[in-house]
Design brief:
Elements (H helix, E strand, L loop, with lengths): L3 H12 L7 H26 L3 H14 L8 H13 L17 H24 L17 H6 L1
Amino acid sequence: MITTAMSSFLLNLSRFQLIKPCIISKETRAHTQKFSIIKNILFSVGQQFAHYQLVSRLFKRWLSSQLVLYHFDPINADLLCCYVFLHSAPFEPPKYVLYVFFNLKYRFVLFRSILTGFCRVLRLLRDFDWINEPLIINFNHELTSNRIKNK
């Protein structure tokens, strides 16, 4: 039994047409697809390095306290932290030390490694030549150094 409200809804539904693809819809679709790929890569980096997510949260909190977070896209903050973990050339990536018993020493090592990662992100912001060079993150080490230099 179809009520009058439902029948009018079905009639209005039949009048809808498909949206024609335009430049904005194509850009939105490309942005959505690339965004999901980047989020999946960041998730895998979070699985590879245990402190990545904590360092990223601390960095975003620091950006917020400096009133700069609104000028940053949050995905860019995540990518900066990702760069520190994947390309820590003169240093080793911040390590995750697992102790069986939760004691004061474990908490100190956990805090120290998160703070080390955060300081390295700040060092990247300070030392990188943002005007003359792009920041290229080599996920899975697929790009060779010659190809990076050519870009």
